[in-house]
Amino acid sequence: MKFKFLLCFLFLGVTNLSAQDYFPTNSGVKTTNTNYTVFKNANIHVDPTSTIENGMFAIQNGKITAVGKSISTPKNSVVIDLEGKDVYPSFIDLYSEFGIKKPERQSSFGRSGQYEATREGFYWNDHVRPEQNAVESFSYDAREAGKYHNGGFGVVNTHIADGIIRGTGALIALNPNGTEGDRILKDRSAQYLSFDKSVKSPQSYPSSTMGVMALIRQAYLDAKWYADGHADNKDLALEALNRNKNLTQIFATDNLLNELRVDKVGDEFGVQYVILGSGFEYEKLDQIKETGATYLIPLTFPAAYDVEDGFMAEYVSLADMKRWNQAPANLKMLADADVPFTITTKGLDPAKEFKENLLKAIEYGLSKEDALAALTTTPAKVIGQAGKIGEIKEGAWANFIITSGDFFEKDSKIFENWVQGEKAVINTMNTTDITGKYDLELDGKEYTLNITGSAEKPKAKIEAEDVKVGSKLSFEDSWMNLLISSPDTTKTEFIRLTAKVASASDKISGKAILPNGDTTSFTATKQSSNEKSEDSEDKKEDETSNPEVVPVTFPNAAYGFEEIPEAENILFKNATVWTNEEQGIMENADVLVKKGKIAKIGKDLKAGGATVIDATGKHLTSGIVDEHSHIALSSVNEGGHNSSAEVTMEDVIDPTDVALYRDLAGGVTTAQLLHGSANPIGGRSAIVRLKWGSSAEDMIFPDSPKFIKFALGENVKQSNWGSGNRFPVTRMGVEQVFMDYFGRAKEYMKNKEANPDSYRKDIEMETLAEILRDERNITSHSYVQSEINMLMHVADSMDFRINTFTHILEGYKLADKMAERNIGGATFSDWWAYKYEVEDAIPYNAAIMHSQGVVTAINSDDAEMSRRLNQEAGKTMKYGGLTEEEAWKLVTLNPAKLLHIDDKVGSIKEGKDADLVLWSDHPLSVYAKAEKTLIEGVVYFDIDRDKELRESIKKQKSELITQMLQAKNKGVKTQPVVKKDKVEAHCNTMGVIR
Amino acid sequence: MKIFNITFILAFISVLGLNAQQMPAAKQSEAVSIVGATAHIGNGEVIENSLIIFEDGKITSVGDASAAASQAKGEIFNAEGKHVYPGFIAPNATLGLVEIDAVRATDDEDEIGEMLPHIRSLVAYNAESQVTETMRPNGVLLGQIAPRGGFISGTSSIVQFDAWNWEDAAVKKDDGLHINWPNSVRRGRWWMGEDPGVKPSKEYQENIIKLKSFFAEAKAYLAGDQKENNLPYLAMEAVFSGDKKVYVHVNGEKEILDVIQFKKDEELANLVIVGAYDGLKVIDELKANDIPVLTGRPHSLPNRDDDDYDLPYKLASQLAKEGILVGIEGSGSMERMNSRNLPFYAGTAAAYGLDKEEALKLITSNTAKILGIDDFAGTLEEGKDATLFISEGDALDMRTNILTDAFIQGRKISLDTRQTKLWKRYMEKYERQEAGE
């Protein structure tokens, strides 16, 4: 709604003293311009919600001095009439690298990894660079500025896009004529952070997403400790980090999960980041809103895929198709949910796709007010410049654009972009409109001249006695040049007409040069100028409405839920129930599930309102627990150090991984998501329930016991990859890593106790201290007996406890020693021969360990095998002759015990959580299929629903393909088919899984 | 209870295995009769309470034990309550070509170069591989050993798994040419910083043309006077004569259709498709062109997020149900050690829609037909090799695939392995400890 200003009679110049200029001049006499420029008759959009129709405003010395319906015009004013035009505050982009030279990649030192920092006097990690200050590398780039001017931008916040903590940005006014001194509105305007390492250093750490998060946490802790004066050394980076503390903190992310992750880190340290988002925030709108962050949202919408080739179309996932369909509605959905956001041109040319995509967002429901706010007042506020930029207001910088009409309409254009009172001309403003139909008299002949098109780009059609004559018209800077083919069609000759058309007139006359060189004059007299150009009308009809936005599911991909499912009360009737308890395997038994718990087990139970499922001939078991998994993780290994106890896998859970659904279809309900085995001391675990569709947070097992991954053998030695320059490279060295770290952890604990106020809090040491205090369990990846024995001895001598040896392929050689120390074993059923250290791995391992009293489990370490863990357990009946009950416990109760969650899961017992699987057949047999998988009474997998989903996926995809084909037919740009693949993670998977 | 179980089986196995160093078994010297077992013939038929007799390495009689009990002769195996199966056949395997995946020195599966029909797997086949011996206790007694890599990987041979060396291992030499069909999509090399996604490959057509021109050049060369030696072209001779089958490793829908066209263009009578991930989309074309298929490992993940979670499980069974001649192969990660799970791959086909005896065909008679060794392998039928085994129970299910005896060409082979020995060795350690206390 347009709010009419009843204002205002302001007295100009009274409050506006010109600043004293102290720069000497040697190029002439000193000239100081204190004139006013007054704009009148404009539709002034003073801010996103108010417009002054037919208003006036004045500027002087780069600032706005008055705005109103009518203001007094000082005598020393240049007046510009903006009749019929709109004025908006120019836009602000808070994520920019404007005027900063792209950081150059340091040539890496061949193949060898680098583990130490390259800088001295700075932080121990090269990727923490808070001392970087954009303004020091800034120089105005007129060409780039031109692009921003074209897009309507007047101010950008630029920064050095390099490193994890990237240092401070600078708020730059894109003043086309001023000096850097004018343009720099604010030095150290905000601090930037990201997940990307600096290209200037090859330092390996951090090599993972959770490593980045841990590094930021540690840097914050160190900064505080440093600020308190406890460090003996000089650390310019930490000093800068402390200096930057109170600035706006902008965190650049490029995917939705990371957006949520950084907010978590911020919350831990009382920092509210402004988050550069992915453009897919709508997929997790509730969680996004919960962060309380303001978002910088890029307008880069996925292009439609080129799906004309039916074979290729098969490679595009439903998730990607949906993103194409839904992403343009992101801003609308954010606005509807009251999530504060600004818009950035990141990834776009501000002069080109920016407006196109902005209009698209508006077509998808974003209001113009919200769009304008996201480009003006919101970013101004975020950067602490409210009232100074982003509004047309007395005292604000004279940053505004003059447009031909409503900016948020397709046909409107920007004429001028004024920054700090200096104008950049985008389109000539007062172009005389010469369109219309004219009678042209030339050299004694009568022609009809029809000028169509827009005022800026007129086109001519000429007829002589109803016969079309070739012509070419150009109209620039009020000079018209018209080329006409000679009426003598046998010759290729031209008549050249030139005329100055200074203002709109019914008569155009000028000079004509005939083919023979003679000069004469011509006159064109307008018949009528009401005929609108036809082609713009034609175009309108082509534009059909945008495709309907399909609903978001949880996750927003194939097999997602339309709504987050809820716990049901279910009575399983007449099943073969594998209790894993004293009752053993009960035939023809009933199990009642109520409020997420196993309420009752027995015969002929009453449903009492619960849904009854006839389980005759079927087997009901507790859900499978996978002790060792790497599914649903965005990153597996932090291999940048030989210890990474500071990282936690809870930071990098990916709840959208389809492996979760597939595991559910294999009867798995709980998994320990482990750090990989790239280093002896790995990261902390995430114990999760496979709650497909829920958030990462909700998947974490309630009151999760604390775990950490250790590793031994070839992987930590980097035997099969790596450069061989990271300690340790032998099993001898591995021992010393543990001795060293636990020795240091003990010293750390002592120091902390002795100096509770001045010790340096170290997340890694804190984690090791938890182990020493027996608050955190170790699960250690292990292969050969020598190293297993070694770790047991290290633990004995350092007085800590090993909870589990995982993989433990030679556990059978040490089962007695493990049993003595009450250490469990989680192993593969039959894997071997894939590397040298599994030479002695035997499929009888589980049976032997079990026979010696070791709590034994079968684990997967593999997204494929994890969905058949029931069969892997079945193999122990073949290899070692376990009974079926013993075999079944290997994948249910025993791993639950190893994870210390057997009070909640692992067996069918009244009062335990209803994590259950209904199998079509004997659960240990190759013939069994999971038909229903429940977690806390919620049916997360149902074989019948799966069938329906297959149909629905097919239908949805074909609808979206039709939409994409229609888009392509309309001439929308498409991209080649891409199948986004995740790297399937194992223990030794490095880097970030995309 | 559990101790009892294990000692029982241990005792059982040590009686059978004794201390044999998995030495190849001696030639069959007397007739062997297996009495009373449920015989799974491998062609879909079952004989309850059967009598199977073999002499000089060949099956001489298969019938009903109750009717022909008196005929039992020679060494008699009472197999009442047990099951007899023809030896399972692992096609497109690399057993004996690599011993330890991560130890490069043990890796002989992938030669450099693109067009390598002359590269022969047989000569690198390690008959004494410790991995191969672990096939036998699971009933996998024969395998087609194929080279990997390149465009034309090379030439495979078919071996049995109880031999002194590759010469006596071979049951069919140089049986097939293995082609890796080009891919219409290309995976980004994520380790080189590329997007790991799959994109259309610009080289697809180009690669097909390369392959076709190789065939054309080879034909031309063979038709000429062959003045210059050209090993790759010479190795193609058996392909054109039809003596060497052509195994085309291919998975995509479009690619399979292109392979079918290739078969027509090149007039290749004996073309087998290996992998066929998208096979269910081209059932009609496969049928119409009578192309047999060795489907990829059922215990693998779907290729695409949107695919049915059970697509790899059901691929073989669905194709077989449509009347296509199907066998199951198991190439992929850790394929050598995983080859022993072949029986359970067939079990999976049974779980996903096939009758168990039909599923059994996927690793016995069908595979023998596809490989062209059905005259002597793949079923329990008179005249065929006595390559078979006795299992305590259903051999397609991991719970009950427990072999008591196995025979290759009538020779009673050891079911011991390095793994069973380690098992015994350490159980003995613990028994000694217990006794000492």
Strand order in the largest sheet of chain A: 22-21-20-19-27-26-25-24-23
If you average the pLDDT of chain A, what whole number results? Answer: 92
Which oligomeric state applies? heterodimer
Major β-sheet of chain A, in short? 9 strands, antiparallel
> What class would the helix/strand composition of chain A place it in?
alpha/beta
CATH class category of the largest domain in chain B: Alpha Beta
Distance between the termini of chain A: 45 Å
Annotation field: number of helices of chain B: 15
Distance from N terminus to C terminus of chain B (CA atoms, Å) equals 20 Å
C-alpha Rg of chain A, in Å?
36 Å
List low-pLDDT spans of chain A: 1-16, 532-542
CATH superfamily of the largest domain in chain A: Metal-dependent hydrolases
| Strand residue content of chain A | 25-35%
CATH architecture assignment name of the largest domain in chain A? Alpha-Beta Barrel
Low-confidence stretches of chain B: 6-20
Task: Count the E strands of chain A.
Answer: 45
Give the helix/strand class of chain B: alpha/beta
Q: Helicity level of chain A, as a percent range?
A: 10-25%
As for the number of domains of chain A, it is 4
SSE blueprint and pairings:
The complex is a heterodimer of chains A (994) and B (437).
Chain A: E1 36-47, E2 50-60, E3 63-68, E4 77-89, E5 91-96, H1 142-151, E6 153-158, E7 165-168, E8 170-173, H2 180-183, E9 184-186, E10 190-194, H3 209-227, H4 236-243, E11 248-252, H5 256-268, E12 274-276, H6 285-291, E13 295-298, E14 304-305, H7 310-313, H8 318-326, H9 330-336, E15 341-344, H10 353-363, H11 368-375, H12 377-382, E16 400-403, E17 414-419, E18 422-425, E19 436-442, E20 445-453, E21 458-464, E22 467-469, E23 471-476, E24 479-485, E25 494-500, E26 507-513, E27 519-528, H13 534-542, E28 570-578, E29 585-594, E30 597-602, E31 611-614, E32 619-622, E33 624-629, H14 658-664, E34 668-673, E35 681-684, E36 686-689, H15 696-699, E37 707-711, H16 714-717, H17 731-754, H18 763-772, E38 777-781, H19 785-798, E39 804-807, H20 815-820, E40 824-827, H21 845-851, E41 856-858, H22 869-878, H23 884-889, H24 893-898, E42 916-919, E43 930-935, E44 938-942, H25 943-969, E45 974-975
Parallel strand pairs in A: 1-4, 5-6, 10-11, 11-12, 12-13, 13-15, 14-45, 28-31, 28-32, 33-34, 37-38, 38-39, 39-40, 40-41
Antiparallel strand pairs in A: 1-2, 2-3, 4-16, 6-8, 7-10, 8-9, 16-17, 17-18, 19-20, 19-27, 20-21, 21-22, 23-24, 24-25, 25-26, 26-27, 28-29, 29-30, 32-42, 34-36, 35-37, 42-43, 43-44
Helix pairs in contact in A: 3-4, 3-5, 8-25, 17-18, 17-19
Chain B: H1 2-17, E1 32-40, E2 46-55, E3 58-64, H2 65-68, E4 75-78, E5 83-86, E6 88-93, H3 130-133, E7 140-145, E8 152-160, H4 166-169, E9 170-180, E10 185-187, E11 198-200, H5 204-223, H6 231-234, H7 237-241, E12 245-250, H8 253-266, E13 271-275, H9 283-288, E14 293-295, H10 311-321, E15 326-328, H11 335-338, H12 342-351, H13 356-361, H14 365-371, E16 388-391, E17 403-408, E18 411-412, H15 418-436
Parallel strand pairs in B: 1-4, 1-5, 6-7, 9-12, 12-13, 13-14, 14-15
Antiparallel strand pairs in B: 1-2, 2-3, 5-16, 7-8, 8-9, 10-11, 16-17, 17-18
Helix pairs in contact in B: 10-12
